[in-house]
Amino acid sequence: MALNYIWIAFFFIAFIVGAAKMLLFGDTEVFPSMMNSTFESAKTAFEISLGLTGVLAFWLGIMKIGERGGIINTFSRWLSPFFTKLFPDIPKNHPVFGNIFMNFAANMLGLDNAATPLGLKAMNELQTLNTQKDTASNPMIMFLVLNTSGLCLIPVGVMVYRAQLGAAQPTDVFVPILLATSFATIVGIVVTAIMQHISLLNKTLLMGLISVMAFLGIIVTVFSQMDRETMGRVATNAANILLFVIIIGFLWAGCRKKINVYNAFVDGAKEGFTTAVRIIPYLVAILVAIGVFRASGAMDWMVTGMRHLVMLTGIPAEWVDALPTALMKPLSGSGSRGMMVDEMTIYGADSFVGHLSCLLQGSTDTTFYILAVYFGSVNISKTRHAVPCGLIADISGSVAAVLLCYMFFS
């Protein structure tokens, strides 16, 4: 229901802002711009879905080979002690744990093209366990919140943009982004666990979280010793080599089990095509609402209002200039990326605002896009506490990004 109200609110706020701009400021172009955005956003939604079709077909085909080859079951057994505490409603050693792990691994490596189909595969498996097919289950919500918190070990994309825009040290955002996104993830887990009455004091869960944080610390230590060229080269190659090793490993497992690897791939690819078609209406709905909201000027008014409020309190307000990236990130990945580039172009890649826009871009993920795509793929209409938990993780990541930017770059 929360997503329903937010979706309606986008249109009503856009209408109110558009009417105010036309009546008070004589802006006769605002409503034509808003209507044009509906067509452009609908077209964009279809193009995104079309672009996902091939990727989904390929990766769900590879996952099908992994399932029949026994790899997914192996991952499930390894991870079951930890994941059964985080997802208590999923039976022990269920294959979905392997799919969840593969999605998390792709997200942490910044491999968005692989993470989405792997996540959709996990969501489909979670739906088979769901007793109310139109309502998000607890495991689905926990999985979604972990995705929207955007934990990424290596923000290659952000570092590439910084390099292109002339940053003296494109990799200097690596550590603060990792800290901000880790904080968002931890907050997301805690909030969702409280909502679902999951005890976080369990020894297995605590040890798992501590192990993850220790691993992140090792990553930070290793990469902090590298210069920017080496870091970029190692990060890019490590992620892509690991991804290709996964593909080869799945194929090898299929051959070892003596299954028909080609037929398994085709069966999985068919599922990927069906999924890509199924998400089109959900993606159109959310992207059109976001497009109208942006075209009305409501986003600009929010930023201006926030700047005035902050200045009245006497709190330093330079961080407000990077706020468009934070506000856009839950709505649109490409939109927030455009905001980040625009802010670095205007203020400089090495300015406080330039650094902060990068931290905000890397600290969380596109909450509403993920909700629309993932829940849309399994026809979930009642999202329960997924939206508030996801947004709390987003806000936590953004607050952490601002504080870390003052700590590292002020």
Describe the structure.
The protein is an all-alpha fold. It is built from 18 helices and no strands. The chain has helices at residues 2-25, 30-69, 71-86, 96-108, 112-129, 138-148, 156-164, 174-195, 203-224, 228-256, 261-278, 280-295, 298-313, 323-328, 333-347, 352-363, 367-377, 386-409. Helix 6 runs parallel beside helix 18.
Quick structural gist:
This protein is mostly helical. The protein has helices at residues 2-25, 30-69, 71-86, 96-108, 112-129, 138-148, 156-164, 174-195, 203-224, 228-256, 261-278, 280-295, 298-313, 323-328, 333-347, 352-363, 367-377, 386-409. It is globular, with a radius of gyration of 22 Å.
Element layout with pairings:
Blueprint: H1 2-25, H2 30-69, H3 71-86, H4 96-108, H5 112-129, H6 138-148, H7 156-164, H8 174-195, H9 203-224, H10 228-256, H11 261-278, H12 280-295, H13 298-313, H14 323-328, H15 333-347, H16 352-363, H17 367-377, H18 386-409
